[in-house]
Amino acid sequence: MGALRYSINVTVDGCADHRTGIADDELHEYSAEILDRADALLFGRVVYQMMEEAWRLPESGDLPDWMTPSLAEFARAIDAKPKHVVSSTLADPDWNAQLVEGDLVESVRRLKDEYTNGLYVGGVTLPLALADAGLIDEYEFIVHPRIAGHGPTPFKGLAAYVDLELVGRREFASGATALRFEPKR
Questions:
Q1: Alpha-carbon torsion 108, 93, 29, 116, what sign?
Q2: Which of 27, 82, 148, 149 could be a cystine partner for 20, CB 3.0 to 4.6 Å?
Q3: Sign of the C-alpha dihedral, residues 72, 48, 141, 108?
Q4: C-beta of residue 10 within 8 angstroms of C-beta of residue 143
Q5: Is 60 helix (H, G, I), strand (E, B) or coil?
Q6: Gap between the Cα atoms of 43 and 140, Å rounded
């Protein structure tokens, strides 16, 4: 069974607004590495549409002029991955994606069984439901040295504590630190 891994960028005060992080080349290279560790991605509709708008490569294969090599590496990595989308309003995702249908918990368990190297999930709303169901096997918080003072926070409204054990740490030149945890079982 593959693991379901969660990864999100947050500021020191817990803001998960993607516009508040320090998105430099080193972080994009690391994010491409993260994607390479999984067989597929699991998104809610909002994150799926946001990622598609930002990272879907043109059919021509020509990269936009603004894409640095590290951005291109990340774009290629996310573009190539199969995507599973949880949504009650999106009818037909077409960015190498399919809708997750039926019971969320059972569907995610089937996906974990299907993918040996597991899946990655990001965002705020869907991961809350997955954490409440005990389905997330690894949590990664990339903490940026910034106080935002606003924005969404991950796991607001969590039904019960999830106790974690630190299993990895990586520091970046920007001052951001990736902290990886596994739930204590």
A1: positive
A2: 148
A3: negative
A4: yes
A5: coil
A6: 16
Burial class of 76 by CB neighbour count within 10 A (0 to 12, 13 to 18, 19+): middle
Contact present, 15 and 6 (Cβ < 8 Å):
no
Angle at Cα 185 formed by Cα 128 and Cα 143, nearest 5°? 50
Tokens of residue 158, six digits: 């969590």
**pLDDT tens digits, 67-101:** 888 888 999 999 999 999 999 999 889 999 999 99
Joined together, the tokens standing for residue 17 give 């607004």
What is the DSSP-derived secondary structure letter of residue 66?
T
Instruction: Compute the distance between CA of residue 5 and CA of residue 41 in angstroms, rounded to an integer.
Output: 10
How long, in residues, is the chain? 185
Cα–Cα distance between 111 and 164 in angstroms, integer?
23
pTM of the model: 0.94
The residue assigned the tokens 């020509």 is: 62
98: which strand partners? 84
Residue 174 sits at φ, ψ, to 5 deg, of: -70, -15
